[in-house]
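Assemble and predict.
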Amino acid sequence: MVEFLQFTLNGVVFGMIYAAIALSLVLIWRGTRLLNFAQGGMAMLTTYIAIEVIYKTHSYWAGFVIALVAGLILGAASELTVVRPTTGKPELNAVIVTIGLLIFFEGLAGILFGGQFRSFPAGFSITGLKVGGTPLGVSRFDVFTVAAVLLTTLILAVVFRYTTAGLRMRAAAFNATIARLSGIRVARVLTVGWALAGLLGALAGVLVTPSTFLYPNSMDAIFVLGFTAAVIGGLDSPAGAVIGGLLLGIALSYVGGYLNSDLTSLVALGILVAVLMIRPNGLFAGARMRRV
Amino acid sequence: MRTLPRRLGAAIIVAAIVAFLSIKLNAFRDFQIAEIAVDVTAVAGLTVLTGLSGQISLGNGAFMAIGAYVTALLLLHLSWPFYLVLVIAGAATAVAGGVVGIAAARLHGPYLAGATLLLGVALPSLALAYPGTFGGDQGLNVVITTPAFLGANFPLTRWQAWVSTAVALVVLVLLANLGQGRIGRNWRAVRDDEVAAALDGINVAAARVRAFVVSATCAGLAGALLAIVTGLVAPGAFTITLSIALLTAAVIGGLGSLLGALWGSLVIVLVPTYVTDVSTSHGLSTTVGANIPIVAYGVVLILVMLVFPQGIQGGLRRLIAAFLGPDQKSRTGRTAPTPHVTPSADQEPASQHEKEGTS
């Protein structure tokens, strides 16, 4: 029973990280109908920036904040330089461009920081918490992880729902042409979407790396799971992304705990295929026009 | 001249050149020839899938892994002759490609890319989950010897280069015919407009699954060849990096072009070796040397997609067209400059860029 509780809580923690990646993918998808395969690479790069800042300043929080800012800049810069020119071309072109961006970031990290595995510090204690002598299997930092992702999600939701900027973003995602006719600068809105996605990715990178290691490919596995979470929830639905992340995190935690941790990515593949077969638009997407 | 004899002739000429080179060059170059042939086999399948049928796969490395592991297991436990093992490896991956293709037929663009990416990440972890069968992290060793009729002193690397080149050429000739025939035309129709293709009576789903089977079979054969060329089958060889390298080669060479698959494979095999040599002789560390090609791939992938979508083969065609004079030039610059228009070309869809007479 204690084991079950531990696996569940652990799943929630990882689920929130997948949710952060999923949310960043959803942000971009809603605006541009495009999946950013460089999201993991961007998160990896900003985590390297964080680690360098932490070494220099000896302050975890300086690194944390600078990583998020770097994510914002990296997201906006990627959109402005290489993604925007793919507008109007076949969707395959944009896919390949973001893959090119991913390889570029990974090679760059290899040149700048080397290929060896690095450990990344956590902002809080990583010793397990206990309630009345029962170990919960999660640490103070894990609690922070969940809180940070939830808080960011909440802020984003409020911005989208109650501010003019959020309304503009929703309008641009809903129908770019009509939004443009109403005087919204759609291109700028899309750049902001990419910047926010970069920030979310950077957050996920800083939060997940203490429990993995940092190396140029370190975010690949996290990215595909984030993608799976986004598809489970429906690439259109921010709430779905969070729920999808949680479901996937918990399911994979059980698989890793009770079966075999090497099977987690295969199970994720199974879940992804099953969801795509039964509800190709995800569990939480509304009715949409169907292609033949 | 008819297309098939022309292609067979070209294949025989290439085979003769490779045979000559493999005798003249040293063992390391032979190994490189084998490596290029392995990549051509896999990239040709991917370029057909992505360029002709319009489906992307970021998981063809997984199909290579299936082919390689089938080969290693059969050679290890049953020691069947390699030719038979090659056929079985191809058949096994064809089945796997069919299964994936059925799942993939309903997916589009980014969804498909993501799903196949996960396939590429997930499948090699099977080897880690069942180390008893697949050798875990260490992988399986593959032992192969040169056949007796070549004599005792025949170098193994040369034999590997020959086998790989032979398979690659057979695959190229078969794919060229497949791409130009009815199946290939259906793929293009599905790629360009699914609704129109369906209204024309083309079974869209079947066409898409067929493309996946073909592509997976090529990857499986390439995996089988890789197993005998490197002598080791381990999960580390089939990471997502491999799948992305295959896509890079297909894109750089020119999506949909079989000759492009050759140019792309030459690039991804020769450039890293060359850059590593140059960077070590200039005193750069090995990490930097190993990562320069990766950065370059990224930049090239982006640039090709943004400004040069037909890749090397498209550039060559334009160059030849410009060289032969304005009357050979097509409006889009994508038509094959060769005057040998294939007999079937007249019945092809009107879209200008489909008459790939030279591939």
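Residues 57 and 113 of chain B are 6 Å apart (CA to CA).
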